[in-house]
Amino acid sequence: MTFYLLGSGAYCTFLLFSKFKDRECSKTELKSWILIAIASTLWIVVIPICLIEIKTKANAKQHSKNKLEIAETTNQFKEITSSIQ
Question: Phi and psi of 17, rounded to 5°?
Answer without folding.
Answer: -65, -40
